[in-house]
Structures
1.
Amino acid sequence: MSRNNIKEEKTYTCDVAVTGAGPAGLMAAIMAAREGAGVIVLERNDRPLKKLYATGNGRCNFSNLNMERGVYRGSDPEYAMTIVDYYDRNDLLLFFHNLGMMTRHIGDYIYPYNEQARTVADVLLLECRRLDISIFCEEMVVDIIPNPDCFTVRTHSSRYRCKKVIAAAGGKASPAHGSDGNLNHIITGMGHTMVRQRAALVPLMFEDKKLSKLAGVRVKCSVRLTIDGLNASQERGEIIINKDNISGIPIMQMSRYATAAFPDGRRVTVHINLFPDETEEEMREFISRAFKGEYDPERRSDIRKDRNAHEALSLCLNEKLAEYCLGVAGIIPRSLAGNVSEKQLEKLAGILQDLRVTVTGDAGYERAQVTAGGFSVSELTDELESRKIPGLYIVGELCDVDGTCGGYNLQWAFSSGAVAGRSAAATLSC
């Protein structure tokens, strides 16, 4: 083959190479550069922060006023809190405010003041430009090679020689934005343990064709997830019934436990309490009055003769949902309300507080907001440096850390990136 037909790899040198231009990667790059390190960022997409633009429906809820224990999951949630405590919400707010980005909170959720994700992206990219951080797009990392005194990071077209590597390529959630776990096999090949990855903050699928007719129904309720009959999680809020799945914040919050059970063939059920503020006794009495009208037990003449079962239940429940629940209870919707037996009413009352939906899977990484699982944090120091490969840092969604809804995953990304970036730069001369 002629030498002229051989594509020669370009070689670059730097202090720190960051693989991935997401929130964790750019924060790591900024913090390392602020400490005086020469930094490059390698991004497989055609532009940085592609996934960030879609965060929070484009509004970018990036942190939360409530940072209590329990908002992070994984094999060691306390590890995540240690990192977030080290670079916390106030540090992140000060970071953005100093760069000129105003913020606001709606409830406990923290947003950029104009509620536009592009503002967060813009301020990060402006700071990268000020610090002279080189961001190479359309550069997918195909190998990371540790050498005695440095690393060689290879892409399809180039080699990057560096003293430190910060792996920030993200998990598998939202592959349309470039997250597909492409670094997993490289880091695993370097000796790191991967905790099985799965979708999290994701809708849960069902196959009930009658339930699918309720598509578009929203209802405020409490929900409980059981796996093989045992309680796994409980949430409260508004859920959304779609054609083949249920979603909404409560469902998304508990989905990580369901997705962990699916591969093992375990039975996963969502229990919906449509009247969570009523006791069982209050519910039975409420339904009896709605159907029978017996407000005075001594007077039997006021028993309902003016409405059918569907009309009676629709006065306190969405009409589509009312018809579905009547069907589950075996009550004919057009039957006279006053003729429904006490046994049937008792069964209906129970269903309204424990409507069970068998879920058969999740909506996949395409519709997941984050990835559960990832590289074991037990193999990382408190600065997110590998205990197996010194000089390699693993941050953001690559780690076995996932947060609940409310800005916690972005806070983790920024916190882990900040801690790793500072550490990588601080140890360059060691």
2.
Amino acid sequence: MFSFFKKKNSPAPEALSPVTTPDVVPTPAEGRSEWLGRLRSGLRKTSQQLGHVFTAGRIDEALYEELESALLMSDSGVKATQHILAQVRLRVKQTRSNEASSVRGFVIEAFTALLQPLEKSLNVDQAHPTVIMMTGVNGAGKTTSIGKLTRHLSDAGASVLLAAGDTFRAAAREQLDVWAGRNQVDIVSQDGGDPAAVSYDAVKAGIARRKDVVLIDTAGRLPTQTHLMDELKKIKRVIQKAEGSAPHEVLLVIDGNTGQNALAQVKAFDDALGLTGLIVTKLDGTAKGGVLAAIAMERPIPVYFIGVGETMHDLRDFNASEFAHAIFG
């Protein structure tokens, strides 16, 4: 699955083509297998917990109980776990399988089908510029993800403008400025300025400079603190004043290590802002991964990208089948 980008002045509306730059999407052979290897390594905590379930001799109730416990331990949540178990039981009945080894394939099928609706490409041809508002709690990797997404879009041919809207934390502005330098893109920032004002100026600058994308960083917010969430709502309203149809995307960055708390964050930010997509970071060996099943079951917001490392090219398109195989394969 690719993220599609069409530059202004394309010769024909139908001339959309997938991003295939080597730095963004790995080659089908070596690059892809290398990426999948890192993804499997990143999700090994869950795969190890689940692996022993499929080594039992025959399919019986004890196996289903073990599978249920393993799925819950992977942060899949009660609803998603019950759904997956029901699908596995159905497939066992349909195929009249007796061997526990066959259950692995049925689990992968059910997990993939559950996550499939989350597959969606980020479309940055919605407007010129397409305004993307980035949100997330402190420590989720939001600013780093903005830098990686900037490289992803720049490599695809998009002109990007960054907005340092996290004015409460000097380090955030400095970090974003470093990413702007690395990616050779423009940045709008103010020392100690109002986040909403910075966002407004950035959108206006993006329009004036004919940029393709404006990426707006916002301060890390705990969804339980109402006054902080109200500040995000204010930023969104001010962005709309700068450009009536904006923001065109509201993305939440979640840490893959936070388990069921990630689902709580998705619900809270979605209720406050109306999320259009997710970026899942830090799938680096301690993440369980099952929380995506819980999100798919209870708040199926598209997962545009997942991140497995810290380099600029570690942000990749989410693929449900690859993700399921990395956990259970």
